[in-house]
Amino acid sequence: MTSDTPAGRRFRVFNRRRSAPSRARRRLGAAARMLAALALAGGVYTAFAPGAFAEDTRQLSASAQEGKALFDNSCITCHGRNAEGVEGRGPSLIGVGSASVEFQVGTGRMPMTRQEAQAEQKPPQFDKAQVKQMGQYIQELGGGPQIPSGDLTTSLEQDPKALAAGGELFRINCTSCHGFGGAGGALSSGKYAPSLHGATTEQIYAAMLTGPQNMPVFGDNELTPDQKREIITYVKMQLQDDKDPGGLFNLGRYGPVTEGLAIFVVGITILVFAALWIAGKS
């Protein structure tokens, strides 16, 4: 302890003068550490998220640039600039991939003429090359699923069991909506499953990848690419190319037994009425 003497008072004043700069230095040191931490956090964010600053300067390929021009002329009203979507008009296309564009635009479902329960298939407004360009633009803009190149069916010479395997997969995953004959059918709320009889291999593969309308998405973790090819092989060879066993006047590929029964019932009814008419005349 210091005594209450002139010497003690001088000692306390000296200590206060020494402590004041020490507190100032502590405050400056804390501020410097905070600024250093903020600078470090900013540097880490910049290093690991460069796309946030480079998005506006994204370099598109020549094909994507052509697709962007088509998009800006025909799609920007509903899907917005840079395909970010417009509320109440059209969803964002970021991440849908070229497969979705090739299905929707290639089948004429897009552009839509009006908002309704389901986009109907129409003659496409763009040719295949333009559809590819628009798909490439959306692909480079946000990524997403793509239709693989090459043959989308399975050769029966290489895999003789592919047709049977595709039929089993089709019956498990597709018949509840598209029917056993692939003719499609009505769903709830004014929607429907379209017929597969005129669908191309690319359209079927893209539909399984993207799940348009009420159709579920069959990602590669649910149906492998080989299984998708087996389903397409079954649809092409059994439902599209194979002759309908029901003959010329069929009932949706239900087979000759069902159609024979229908013909028998109709025929018997006609014969009964004919017999009654003849009896009445005689």
Short description:
Helices cover 56% and strands 1% of the residues.
Overall description:
The protein has 282 residues and is an all-alpha fold. The protein is 56% helix and 1% strand. It contains eleven helices and two strands, in the order ααααααααββααα. The longest helix has 43 residues, at 6-48. The protein starts with 5 loop residues before the first helix and ends with a helix. Residues 50-57 have low confidence and may be disordered.
Structural class, from secondary structure content? mainly alpha
CATH class of the largest domain: Mainly Alpha
Q: Provide the residue-averaged pLDDT.
A: 85
Count of DSSP E strands?
2
Q: Which sheet architecture does the biggest sheet show?
A: 2 strands, antiparallel
* Strand order, sheet with most strands: 1-2
Furnish the topology, listing elements before pairings:
Elements: H1 6-48, H2 51-54, H3 62-74, H4 76-79, H5 97-106, H6 128-142, H7 162-173, H8 175-178, E1 185-186, E2 192-193, H9 201-210, H10 225-241, H11 256-281
Antiparallel strand pairs: 1-2
List keywords for this structure.
two-stranded antiparallel ribbon; 1% strand; mainly alpha; transmembrane; Cytochrome Bc1 Complex, Chain D, domain 2; elongated; 282 residues; translocase; 3 domains; transmembrane helix; 11 helices
